[in-house]
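hey can u check if this looks right to u? its 206 residues, i copy pasted from the old doc so theres a chance i mangled smth
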Amino acid sequence: MNVFHRQEVLNLGSLKYIVFNSLIGEIAIVWDKNEIIKQVVLPDSKSRKHNYGDIQYHGVLHEVHPSKYILKIMSNIKEIIMGHDIKFELNQLDLNDLTQFQREVLLKQNEIPYGMVTTYKKLAQLIGRPKSARPVANTLASNPFPLIIPCHRTVKSDWTLGGYNGRKDGYFKRFILENEGIQFEDDVIKQQYRYPQEDVESMNKI
C-alpha cells in the first residue's frame, strides 16, 4: 500500500483548481494556500466532462502550473481509479466544513479496507448509529473527497451498487470496484468481498 504524506507548503494565493483526465473522465481538485485539498469533483456521468458549477467555492483560480505536490495528488487519484491501493492521510483534507455526523461517517468510511465493500446500514452500525442508514447514504452522496475517501466501497443493503457521489448512475462506482478486484454475481457483490467479514462467516455457519 502506498501511503501518501503531505508536506506544508507556503502559498499566498487564493483557492485554486485544476482539471485533469482520468479513466472515468475529467476530474477537478480544489486546494487552498497550504495545498490542503478542499474538494474533489468527479465528471458528469454521461459526457465525462468536468462541470465548473460543481465546485462548491466561489472565485477559485484555475492553476495551469501546479506544484509537484499537486501533481502527485493528481497521479495518485488516477492510480486509485485504476484499482491501486493508495491511502491519503486525513491531514491532507480540509474537514472543517463537515458536521460532526458527516465527519464520523467519512472517517469510518475511510477505514473500509481496500478490496472490500460494506453497506450504508452496516456503516451506520459501525459508527454506533444503527438507525441512520439514510443519513449515512446522504453523507456519502455529498462526500467532498470521492476516491480519496473511498465512498465507492459502500453499497445498498441488498449488496447492489446504488448511486455514487450524488449520481444515480453507478457506472463509475462499478468501474472502480471492479478495478479493485471486487466481483459481482447478477449485479450483487459476492460474499467474500463483504465487510465486516464476520457477517459472512456467520451466514456460512447457518
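The chain is about 30% helix and 15% strand.
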